[in-house]
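Homework-ish question, so no full write-ups if that breaks the rules, but can someone show me the predicted structure for this set?
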Amino acid sequence: MSVALLRKIPFFLALYFFASLAIFAAIDAIPGDPVALRFGKMVDAERVALERERLGLDRTFVERFLLSQKRFVSGDWGKSLSSARATTEDFRAFMPATLELSLCAMAIGVLVGLSVALTGALGTHPWVARLANAIGAIGLVVPIFWIGILLLVVGSLWLGWFPMGGRFDMAAIQPDRVTGFLFLDTLLAGDLTAFGVGVRYIALPALCLSVFPAASVASVTWARLQEPELQAFIVALRSRGFGTARILWKHLLRVSAGPTITVIGTSFGALLGGAFLTETVFSWPGIGRYLVTAILERDVFVAQNLLTFLVLLVVMVAFVSDLVVLRLDPRKGGDA
Amino acid sequence: MVKRLVVLLLLVSGIVLVGCGPKSQSGGEAPKVFIFARGSDAQKLDPADIDDGESVNTLTQICEGLVRFKSGTLEIEPWLAESYSVSPDGLVYRFNIREGVRFHDGTPLDAEAAAYSFQRQMDEAHPAHLPEAAFSYWSYLYQDVVAVEAVEPMVLEIRLSQANAAMLRSLAIFPAWLISPKSLERYGSEMQRNPIGTGPYRLLEWRRNEAIILERNPDYWAEEPAFERLVLKVVPDNTTRLLQLKSGAIHGMDGLQPTEVAALKEDPSLTVYEDAGLNVGYMALNLDRERLSHLDLRRAIALGIDKEAFATVALEGAGRPASYPLPKGFLGYPDIEDAKVYDLEAARRLAAPFKRSFEEKPLEILVMNAPRPYLPDPVTAATFVKSQIEAIGIPAKVVALDFKTQLDRLRNGDFETALIGWVGDNGDTDNFLSVFFGSWAAEKGTATNYSFYRNPEMDELLLSARRAIEPEERARLYEKALALWKRDVPLVPLCHGDNIVVLSSQFEGFRLQKIGDLRLSEVRPRAK
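A: Not a homework solution, just the prediction itself:
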């Protein structure tokens, strides 16, 4: 296990390096001088030159890249050119909302995905299997904003069960900000009503964002359960007289956990991508929207640091999920 | 067993989702909170250092200036100054500050306090001249101001180095709004999230990218606003915003797609406010490019675009065709519109000698890919212009870019032609024509004169008109300037985009402002 772990570290480090270089180069290549564009309608060439120098934008590509890495690692992420706020402050303001949304979506996705796949695998009627398959397929192809608007129309406009976007009631007092995670903060404040309000607000966006992970988990788990050895395994368990519940909980969940966790790890990146669309449709004040605005506004330092962080996060999640899989199934540690 | 399990698993997810069950949205009878939704949040709340519309619209509720535009007009009225006078040579402005006005933090307004908001912009050594602020409007609209001083406790004097006919209007807009000096001393760089003005509402809470929550200023000196709270909510998605308005979750919105407007007008529960915006969308012809340095070709393009058809196709009714490069009603705008109109035959004839060059390399039309106030559907607009230009025999191609990239290429002259526009700041003719035609605005890198039109005669007219005080004299000079534009065709005006705001019909009192600011303090519940 530890050998396998050590082996993966250089791989992930290289992945991080090339990804952050790619991000830096891509943002650098966007046309338009961020400082001149920040000056709005009327540009004063002299002041632009001074400001570029102050920000270090007049140096060479390699110098700027190294400087940006140094700053990223030391946590000095600079200031937004458009709002003059520290990037780290904005990061703390918007990242928890996105993580909260992504984790809820992932939880729902895994729950629904597993239910669908296991139901399909154990189902005695062929239509159960077909339905499970269909759900998986649909979830992978339907655009997320379309699902979002559908959920809003049905859940808010027709049924009136959920608010139409936003993260918290405009009229209600928000709990003191401790962690930035609304659920944790409401619980820390012991305010269950506020917690309930938070749940109603997150429900639709989380459901919307959960469609993709649900479908991925369902289809991967489904494929795993269709493997002949597992089918034989199920038959063997049944012939020993074990009940469905026992087969499910004691055996199938465990054997199907590996691929499921890998999917969780790899679809986390896709989830963060989907977060932007979900955040837009549901007016969710998250990092996805903030980041896209930053790129469009040429807020280069914000964009570089946030993207680098998100890449690091996705790489780490993939790394951890690899470790968990290894733990569950030590055979994979061999010479993979 | 299996079925029970399935039901259980699916139910668990269901229960988690439904949570605490339904609650009705706010709204109903005589609301105390007015919720207005828009597509994005304010950037920063320092009136001296902003240029995004959402920041301006937020500060409109919080801050005020010495003078302002009389509601719904381009007429100046005294506001935080009770009265004012301008010296005959146009160099000295005296403002008698209104008695009894206080900033939201309790600081009384006097001439010293008023002067502070100007001095911090003009004096680089001033303690409130924040290092991260660009103060870009100061060097643009107020460059003629040399001193701002309290000459008596309640008398403020603004002195200019040379007369500037647009100055009074410029003093009515956001960079000249007053901020409590005490708050600037107290907050320093943090002031941009704690704007302390004298306006009808004050900032209560800013949940960024979510909402700005304002509360009624209990000590407001003028008419008290009708609502206890005013919420400026951020709803980035157009469809969601409209759904919210229809469901009553919000009371008003802007940022509508032109295609939606017609249907909304039919809905009795909503009121659509629509007026010509203070802007012009135009086609810039880069005179620095050899192919466009030929007058005949430029004239052919101008004659070949059917603006009536353009307005129908590209604006879908959310704007009007433009004959001149400035909005109707501006000083110098001709009484009788005689700008050359659509003439396909003449255009074809003029374009004929240039065909070959464009057959090798089509005419490039740069355009932005997201709506602007003067072009609600830019790509459709550009496609239409392309088809019109091809109809006169000149092959063309559309290059759609994001706005900032387009802006960068325009400022650097890195394009052949472009659809672009200008949103006026202070309602003065100078604020359009100098921006488009002044040779001082044609420096590569910082240009606003995207045609790179340089004509000493034009410069002379524009500068004289800026320095002249008598409106008749100015109008005469601007008419001459427009005659030069018509002769040389550095740009082709296309349209004026409309300002559109929709409110729920349970409210009244709202008026669209000419310069496009959003005075929500005038809104009140409709009398039954």
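Now go work out the reasoning yourself. Hint: DSSP finds 13 helices and no strands in chain A.
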